[in-house]
Backbone:
């Protein structure tokens, strides 16, 4: 549904995007992940035809963004970083205007505006002025604006930034409900959001894609990989490190008198440790295999590239 | 075509609830009353001749302030990003906004309609001349609104955009009297760019195609520049 290849963009002497390529299949939800200033918004603005690129090809819904911008714009719903609202208009008038921009007739407009308001939780808010809305409701109106023409492709730039947890959950539920019939790209720097929403993440930093894959793949790329969490009593760290197969132990502190350790080993050490504990070598309360958190994976991937650039 | 109408309707809605627009409207009506009074008492003629040239100067200061909002504010609110990523063409956007500003001007002139009615009550004005005077003022408004839109498309700060619009238009006023003041060939050529010279005929009931062409060309130039300024933002 979205094909980007060899995209380059510079603002003056500063390169904003360097050879960015990725594809998004129909019905997929993909997160654009990266630190602030990484190039997420620039990429989205190019996808929507708001900005040009210096080099590269972009196809959205089968149309070239640069050659057939209008066909692309008709098929894309876009929520910019700040919801694009006219403070002096009411919710109903504004959404009607957005629908009219999309070329809908009067009857279709009133039907679609009603449906969309229902969908984003704005039912009954027609007459409120946009300027008087709270951040959460402004974001909802912004989403409604992107959805009103029921576009096959949705591009959402930080849809949950600045919202309270309940509002974030509301927007997330909405985005999840869109999957399937809509292809969604959303940008964020909040990792838990990716875990909650997107099976796939494209990590971008310094204008370059540094990782693209499922969250599991991303985690596996974190330095160190999987490790084992143990809580023990009656054994010192040095002894624990000397056990067969164990390579590195790192202390994680004590919880109610139990010592917590991070154990790294060549092969999974759990069975061996359990057997030793069962034999009375030490007392064992917890033994758990863990993958690195997405945060660790993210810092691993972004930090490495960040210093290289 | 439909896009133009959509934008036109939206802009008029926004104008209708915009206190600044009303403030400038009030100033314009006050000035037109004042110029009317002075014109009548100084010349003793039942005509709008003095009023017309003075109102053109009032337009020069007021219309850029009425149009300064358009692109500067859309950009600040982020709504320009929405408009330019919708199927609406930049052409429709510019023309829709221009027509909305011009509609506001027409309403403003409608507010001054009481002045010729006063003339009619006490004297016998030439209605043809009244009509051409208003036509001339509307043509001036078209050009000045286009200039205001252009300055608004250049700057992010709306007040700065308004002032830039005034500064861009000032030469068109100032050169108007060059010929009368200096009188050589260069001055004559320069004053051909003056707004007042081209408005004069309308005040005497003459619709000269050269004058109409002048205003149309000025309007076209500024609208074209606005369009290009919008397009160029893609390439930043």
Residues:
């Amino acid at each position: 549904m979205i094909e980007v290849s060899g995209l380059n963009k510079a603002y003056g002497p500063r390169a904003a995007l360097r050879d960015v390529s990725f594809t998004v299949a129909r019905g997929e939800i993909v997160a654009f992940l990266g630190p602030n200033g990484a190039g997420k918004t620039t990429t989205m603005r190019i996808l929507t035809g708001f900005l040009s690129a210096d080099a590269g090809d972009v196809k959205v819904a089968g149309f070239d963004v640069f050659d057939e911008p209008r066909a692309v714009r008709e098929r894309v719903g876009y929520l910019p970083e700040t919801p694009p609202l006219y403070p002096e208009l009411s919710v109903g008038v504004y959404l009607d205007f957005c629908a009219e921009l999309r070329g809908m007739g009067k009857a279709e407009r009133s039907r679609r505006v009603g449906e969309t308001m229902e969908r984003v939780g704005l039912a009954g808010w027609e007459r409120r002025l946009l300027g008087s809305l709270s951040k959460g409701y402004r974001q909802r109106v912004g989403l409604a604006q992107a959805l009103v023409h029921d576009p096959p492709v949705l591009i959402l730039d930080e849809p949950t930034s600045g919202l309270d947890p309940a509002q974030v959950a509301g927007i997330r539920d909405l985005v999840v409900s869109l999957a399937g019939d809509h292809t969604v790209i959303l940008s964020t720097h909040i990792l838990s959001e990716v875990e909650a929403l997107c099976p796939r993440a494209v990590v971008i930093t310094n204008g370059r894609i540094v990782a693209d894959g499922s969250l599991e793949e991303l985690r596996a790329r974190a330095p160190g990989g999987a490790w084992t969490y143990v809580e023990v009593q009656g054994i010192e760290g040095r002894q624990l490190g000397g056990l067969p197969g164990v390579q590195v132990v790192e202390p994680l502190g004590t919880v109610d008198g139990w010592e917590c350790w991070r154990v790294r080993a060549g092969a999974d050490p759990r069975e061996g440790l359990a057997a030793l504990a069962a034999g009375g070598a030490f007392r064992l309360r917890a033994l758990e295999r863990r993958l690195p958190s997405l945060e660790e994976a993210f810092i691993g991937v972004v930090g490495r590239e960040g210093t290289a650039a | 075509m439909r896009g133009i109408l959509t934008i036109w309707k939206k802009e008029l809605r926004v104008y209708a609830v915009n206190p600044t627009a009303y403030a400038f409207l009030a100033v314009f009506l006050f000035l037109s009353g004042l110029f009317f009074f002075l014109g009548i008492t100084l010349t003793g003629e039942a005509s709008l001749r003095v009023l017309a040239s003075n109102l053109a100067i009032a337009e020069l200061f007021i219309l850029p302030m009425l149009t300064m909002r358009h692109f500067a504010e859309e950009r600040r609110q982020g709504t320009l990003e929405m408009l330019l990523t919708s199927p609406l063409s930049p052409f429709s956007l510019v023309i829709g906004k221009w027509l909305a500003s011009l509609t506001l001007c027409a309403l403003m002139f409608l507010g001054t309609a009481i002045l010729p009615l006063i003339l009619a009550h006490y004297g016998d004005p030439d209605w043809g001349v009244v009509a051409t005077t208003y036509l001339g003022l509307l043509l001036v408004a078209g050009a000045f609104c286009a200039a205001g839109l252009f300055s608004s498309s250049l700057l992010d700060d709306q007040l700065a955009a308004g002032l830039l619009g005034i500064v861009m238009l000032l030469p068109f006023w100032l050169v108007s009297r060059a010929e009368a003041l200096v009188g050589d060939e260069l001055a004559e050529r320069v004053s051909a760019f003056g707004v007042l010279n081209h408005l004069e005929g309308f005040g005497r009931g003459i619709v000269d195609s050269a004058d109409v062409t002048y205003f149309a060309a000025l309007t076209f130039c500024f609208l074209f520049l606005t369009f290009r300024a919008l397009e160029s933002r893609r390439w930043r």
User: Anything to note?
Assistant: The interface with chain A takes residues 2-3, 6, 9-10, 13-14, 17-18, 77-89, 234-236 of chain B (CB under 8 Å). Residues 2-235 of chain B form one domain. DSSP finds 13 helices and no strands in chain B. Chain B has a mean pLDDT of 90.
